[in-house]
């Protein structure tokens, strides 16, 4: 196939910066005895769960949201350390200040990653590649932590690129190479295409970006609904989303798909609280507060259930978010099947006081 660059490809220079094993790396930085060793941030108790894992632990298959007992089975020498979110937030603020030296167009995705539009960088550097290199060097100097970066002409490709040379590297996808890069990539690597959609695409003979690009919009919409048009665009390396700093959010959510189905309350509740913590960290960083808590679960047969509750005032602390999330997930017991995905979402930002109501949706 002939490669064709997007018609707007030269108009933007986007960097996606992703800190390397952020929580675990902060712990290894602050406690030298942990350096070079497999480290998990979280609790080692039977009900514990891994919040983050160092690269040394990842070599054994240890991943975030994994039950601690599973992680210890995979890596007997794994060292557990408690999380210190106040420290992680402080480091994240340091990194954000560095970003703002180069562009006001910074869109944080979490404590450890963000998009930057450096089309007109404030330091007058000659290229986005040079800008990313300087930013990574400054992060290392200021925090003693490494970051990886992806550089491209849109957000979709920049995020893909930041995974290419991890840890402590960067990768460029140019307008000339973008369509070919996407064509060669397995669809499972596309951000926004999860395991279930990948399985469906594979059944339809779609294994790679090139296979996806061969399908027209009508076919993709018939198979995947509204997402079909998005899949059609990204298969061609096209993404017109802007980097939008401090954009108003209607909700904040976090979810994780597990390598092994969760079959007991003891297995379900710790990772659910990790998702709630992720949501609350965003709330604390942005000041956002919402009234509606929603818990999402996907069973092993891919059926999705949600449970939600709207409070009479915005959630003001982590403990309340934990309490409501646990109450909602406990309405699913006894579990009809193993749970392969859990998520927590907080919504209803900026709404005034109202009478509390409970909504249980199957």
From TrEMBL:
Family as reported in the entry's similarity comment: Belongs to the DNA polymerase type-Y family.
GN (gene name): dinB
Reaction(s) catalysed by this chain's protein: DNA(n) + a 2'-deoxyribonucleoside 5'-triphosphate = DNA(n+1) + diphosphate
The name this protein goes by in its record: DNA polymerase IV
Assembly mode: Monomer.
Subcellular location(s) per record: Cytoplasm
Sample GO molecular function, one term: DNA-directed DNA polymerase activity
Top-level lineage group: Bacteria
InterPro entries the UniProt entry points to: DNA/RNA_pol_sf, DNA_pol_Y-fam_lit_finger_sf, DNA_pol_Y-fam_little_finger, DNA_polymerase-Y, DNApol_IV, PolY_HhH_motif, Rev_trsase/Diguanyl_cyclase, UmuC
Keyword Magnesium: yes
Comp. bias intervals (Basic and acidic residues): 236-249
Cofactor annotation remark: Binds 2 magnesium ions per subunit.
Active site: 113
Keywords for the protein's UniProt record, in alphabetical order: Cytoplasm, DNA damage, DNA repair, DNA replication, DNA-binding, DNA-directed DNA polymerase, Magnesium, Metal-binding, Mutator protein, Nucleotidyltransferase, Transferase
Role noted for this protein: Poorly processive, error-prone DNA polymerase involved in untargeted mutagenesis. Copies undamaged DNA at stalled replication forks, which arise in vivo from mismatched or misaligned primer ends. These misaligned primers can be extended by PolIV. Exhibits no 3'-5' exonuclease (proofreading) activity. May be involved in translesional synthesis, in conjunction with the beta clamp from PolIII.
Annotated EC: 2.7.7.7
First-listed, main subcellular location of the protein, grouped into a coarse class: cytoplasm
Region (Disordered): 236-264
Entry keyword Cell cycle: no
Binding site for Mg(2+): 18, 112
NCBIfam families: PRK02406.1
Organism: Sphingomonas rustica
Stretches assigned to the UmuC domain: 14-194
């Amino acid at each position: 196939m002939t490669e064709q660059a997007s018609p707007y490809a030269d108009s933007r220079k986007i960097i996606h910066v992703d800190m390397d094993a952020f929580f675990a790396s902060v712990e290894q930085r602050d406690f030298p005895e942990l350096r070079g060793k497999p480290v998990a941030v979280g609790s080692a108790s039977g009900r514990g769960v891994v919040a983050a894992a160092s690269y040394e632990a990842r070599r054994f298959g240890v991943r975030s949201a994994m039950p601690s007992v599973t992680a210890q089975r995979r890596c007997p020498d794994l060292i557990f350390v408690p999380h210190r979110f106040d420290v992680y937030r402080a480091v994240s603020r340091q990194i954000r200040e560095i970003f703002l030296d180069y562009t006001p167009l910074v869109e944080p995705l979490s404590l450890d990653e963000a998009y930057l539009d450096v089309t007109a960088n404030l330091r007058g550097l000659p290229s986005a590649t040079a800008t990313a290199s300087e930013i990574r060097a400054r992060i290392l100097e200021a925090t003693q932590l490494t970051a990886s970066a992806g550089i491209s002409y849109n957000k979709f490709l920049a995020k893909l690129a930041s995974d290419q040379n991890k840890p402590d590297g960067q990768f460029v996808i140019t307008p000339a190479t973008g369509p070919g890069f996407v064509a060669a990539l397995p669809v499972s690597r596309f951000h926004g295409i999860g395991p279930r959609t990948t399985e469906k695409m594979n059944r339809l003979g779609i294994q790679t970006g090139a296979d996806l690009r061969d399908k027209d919009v009508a076919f993709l919409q018939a198979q995947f609904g509204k997402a079909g048009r998005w899949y059609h665009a990204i298969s061609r390396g096209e993404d017109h989303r802007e980097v939008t700093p401090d954009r108003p959010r209607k909700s904040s959510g976090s979810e994780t798909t597990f390598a092994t189905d969760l079959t007991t309350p003891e297995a379900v509740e710790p990772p659910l609280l990790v998702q709630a913590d992720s949501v609350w960290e965003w709330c604390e960083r942005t000041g956002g507060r919402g009234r509606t808590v929603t818990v999402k679960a996907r069973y092993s047969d891919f059926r999705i259930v949600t449970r939600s509750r709207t409070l009479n005032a915005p959630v003001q602390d982590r403990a309340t978010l934990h309490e409501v999330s646990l109450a909602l997930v406990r309405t699913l017991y006894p579990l009809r099947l193993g749970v392969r995905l859990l998520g927590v979402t907080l919504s209803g930002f900026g709404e005034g006081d109202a009478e509390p109501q409970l909504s249980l949706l199957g």
